[in-house]
Write a structure and sequence with these properties.
Blueprint: E1 2-7, E2 10-19, H1 21-31, E3 34-35, H2 41-50, E4 58-65, E5 68-71, E6 76-77, E7 103-106, E8 117-120, E9 126-133, E10 135-140, E11 143-145, E12 163-167, E13 180-185, E14 189-192, E15 196-198, E16 211-214, E17 226-231, E18 242-247, E19 251-254, E20 260-262, E21 275-278, E22 290-294, E23 307-312, E24 316-319, E25 323-325, E26 338-341, E27 356-360, E28 372-377, E29 381-384, E30 388-390, E31 403-406, H3 408-421, H4 428-444
Parallel strand pairs: 4-9
Antiparallel strand pairs: 1-2, 2-9, 3-9, 4-5, 4-7, 5-6, 7-8, 10-11, 12-13, 13-15, 14-16, 17-18, 18-20, 19-21, 22-23, 23-25, 24-26, 27-28, 28-30, 29-31
Subcellular location: Cell membrane; Membrane
Main location: membrane
GO molecular function, one term: metal ion binding
Length: about 450
């Protein structure tokens, strides 16, 4: 198997395997015309461009015969003007006559001295370089050429999605040797690969065909206390993607002029990503004679979900709820309360009353909230209820006011006095019961809670 290209009146071929110089000539003669005979510098330039690089390089049709470098196809000596030796060559580096360097190799795609010749031992293994004539009559190796100029063609470039391809030449020649194709992408796409390719002499493009990749924007994430929903027609976070942001109840979007972001052809979103911030209720103004305690710091104490508690200074009653919470609608859960001064009440009606004796921590006639009083009864009466009471903030006793009831000895004494005077005709027992009921009714009138 061989690979080939054509220039002027003949085509070039090279073997896929390595062989000695003699084996190479035999292979060329069996499959083609003969080993390559270099005609001019343009031919050298073409071969160096077309042939692939081989580590051992290529055999060509020159050999030393009777100590003269000779073109083997024409059996003519190599003329001085046709010589193309590399610097310092030929040098017959091997001085052993049995292993002398009598054959010629051509450097292809060598870093230095590319296209030049070097004398080499004929038993070395190298790639055969041949030509085939497009003719029946000789001017090259005794043939006369009839020329058919056939340019090699590279594979057609298939339609590339989202790309623009511009090639040199017309529809018949745009993929021919030497012509180039340039590539660009539609808006919203990046070119991956080279911007231009050239068809080489080996009928291959000078590189891989590029492609267009959709541009991507940075990935968006759900904001704290919110979420984002995206539509991605060309792929996640890609060109033409749209993302809509929303917040949980009690929060609102801040930090952006829009709730919808669009990925543009530049690879950037058209606006900054918004965030979610808690809604704020109206600030609570300073309340007279009140103490207000709110959750959070100075920036967040009126934010959604936080609460404020209210209490009053001594001598004032709270009118309204004890606590308010900022709701999702940015309104407090109720009306703001206020503190109302307590109307001082006089308890002088109890002073000097029979039976119940009251001793207080402050003046009995002007009992203020917080005052405490102890109670006991006059001799002959018994205390029923709490011995100690405290006046609360709303000017109410913390328990029911106690009462005094007559003892049995007192009832007997009264009954005896009445019987001795003959004031009534009832029996002693009936009289005693009547007096006891009267005393109970009288004691109930001493209720301090009125």
């Amino acid at each position: 198997m061989s690979f080939w290209t054509s220039v002027n009146c003949w085509s070039y071929h090279y073997s896929q395997t390595k062989m000695t110089w003699q084996q190479a000539r035999t292979w060329c003669q069996e499959h083609h015309t003969d080993m390559v005979a270099i005609q001019n510098q343009e031919e050298i330039t073409h071969l160096n461009s077309w042939l692939p690089k081989k580590s051992t390089y290529y055999w060509i049709g020159i050999r030393k015969i009777n100590d003269v470098w000779t073109w083997v196809g024409t059996n003519k000596p190599l003329t001085e003007e046709a010589k193309n030796w590399a610097l310092g060559e030929p040098n017959n580096a091997n001085k052993d006559a049995r292993r002398s360097e009598d054959c010629v190799e051509m450097y292809i795609k060598r870093q230095y001295q590319a296209g030049k010749w070097n004398d080499e031992r004929c038993d070395k293994q190298k790639t055969a370089l041949c030509y085939s004539a497009y003719c029946n009559y000789s001017k090259v190796n005794a043939f006369t050429c009839v020329c058919y100029l056939v340019a090699v063609r590279c594979p057609a470039i298939s339609v590339l999605e989202n790309a623009v391809v511009n090639c040199e030449g017309d529809t018949k020649t745009k993929y021919a040797y030497g012509n180039s194709c340039s590539f660009s992408c539609l808006p919203g796409y990046n070119l991956v690969g080279t911007k231009a390719l050239t068809c080489t002499a080996s009928a291959e493009w000078s590189g891989n065909v590029p492609y267009c990749q959709v541009i991507q924007c940075s990935k968006l994430s759900n904001p704290q206390w919110g979420f984002v929903r995206c539509s991605d027609p060309l792929g996640p976070s890609s060109y033409q993607s749209t993302c809509v942001f929303a917040c949980e109840e009690g929060y609102e979007l801040t930090g952006s002029q829009t709730d919808t972001l669009l990925c543009e052809s530049t690879g950037q979103w058209n606006a900054t990503q918004p965030s979610c911030t808690a809604v704020r209720c109206p600030a609570i103004s300073v309340l007279e004679n009140a103490v207000v305690n709110c959750e959070g710091d100075t920036k967040t104490k009126y934010a959604y979900g936080n609460s404020c508690s209210f209490s009053c200074l001594p001598g004032y009653n709270l009118v309204g709820t004890k606590a308010l919470t900022c709701t999702a609608s940015a309104e407090w859960s109720g009306n703001v309360p206020y503190c109302q001064g307590i109307v001082q009440q006089s308890f002088h009606c109890y002073t000097g009353k029979p039976n119940l004796i009251m001793n207080c921590s402050s003046n009995n006639s002007e009992l203020a909230p917080g005052a405490t009083c102890s109670f006991n009864c006059e001799p002959g009466f018994e205390l029923h209820g709490a011995e100690n009471l405290q006046c609360s903030e709303d000017v109410q006793w913390d328990e029911a006011v106690p009462t005094c009831e007559a003892t049995l000895s007192q009832v007997t004494l009264i009954a005896s006095g009445v019987a001795a005077g003959g004031a009534v005709s009832l029996s002693g027992l009936s009289l005693a019961m009547w007096i006891l009921r009267k005393l109970k009714n009288r004691a109930s009138k001493f209720d301090l809670s009125r």
